[in-house]
Amino acid sequence: MTVHSARDGDVAILTIDRESKLNALDYPTVDALLAHLDAAERDDAVRAVILTGAGDRAFSAGADIPSLAGSIARSADGPETALREIVRRGHALTRRVEEFPKPVIAAVNGLAYGGGCELTEAAPLALAAEHATFAKPEITLGFPPPFGGSQRLPRHVGRKRALELILTGDPVPAARAAELGLVNAVVPAGELLGAARDLAARITRHAPTAVAACLRAVTRGINLPIEEGLAVEAAWFAATVPTEGVRDGLRRFLDRSADRR
Fold it and tell me: What residues contact residue 214 under an 8 Å CB cut-off, 6+ apart?
């Protein structure tokens, strides 16, 4: 198995486990990640997901190059095989992480190159160990990022900052990734999973319906014109109005207000 799932209370921890390959994403690993995310979504006891890599050298070195090379070789007479096996599979994974209805926290425990960086970009939240590094090295192989990185990174950090990473392929340290907004915070390596669990706990103390609505409103509205985005926000607010989460939240607030009088 190249992906291991463990539970810590209401948090599922998914670990990419190809340590000898720097946790590179071959096709079975991508498919396994998708299957584990499907299982986490179906399990109502899971409130959040932490995604990390085995060992302390790599979160993920990106797409598995032998797999990728094989797909490209089979596409000598046209791009169909490479598009199907690389791009569609990669897009499916990063879109699934980005649109997941429960918070996904990337715990970046080492280098995050190529597809590993694109997973970080797709995750709603990310923390990095102090020794983590990030890079977009696809250009050195002759092609642009194929897992969504040419689109998400500029939206997150700005066009010029993104293009510097995409066009040079140069790595940046964790501190710079935090400055760019690629990760939320940088922590000592030994504290990474604990910090990710703490962040998850600060989220899962709130009603699951509210968490899901916030995630979906932001994800679906972020790239829309403001008027359309406001309509998305209004729709998700309306969806929460009849929920127990709203009733409980208002009751707690009103009880506290009454106690202060």
Answer: 236
CA distance 196 to 51: 9
pTM metric for this prediction: 0.94
Respond yes or no: is residue 233 known to be catalytic.
Answer: no
Q: CA distances (Å), 84 to each of 27, 88, 190, in order?
A: 11, 5, 39
130 flagged as catalytic: no
- Contact assessment for residue 5 and residue 46, using Cβ atoms and an 8 Å cutoff: no
List pLDDT tens digits, range 62-101: 988 888 888 888 887 778 888 888 889 999 999 999 999 9
List pLDDT tens digits, range 166-217.
Answer: 999 999 999 999 999 999 999 999 999 999 999 999 999 999 999 999 999 9
* Alpha-carbon gap, residue 255 to 247, rounded angstroms: 12
Q: Spot the catalytic one: 99, 121, 130, 138.
A: 138
Closest by CA to 116, choosing from 187, 52, 34, is 52
Q: How far apart are CA 155 and CA 169, in angstroms?
A: 18
Among 19, 99, 118, 121, the active-site one is: 118
Q: Is 100 helix (H, G, I), strand (E, B) or coil?
A: coil
Q: Is 233 exposed, middle or buried (0-12, 13-18, 19+ CB in 10 A)?
A: middle
The order of strands in the sheet holding 172-173 is 58-60, 111-113, 133-135, 172-173
Beta carbons within 8 Å of 150's beta carbon, 6+ residues apart = 144, 166
* Residue 129 contacts residue 174 (beta carbons within 8 Å): yes
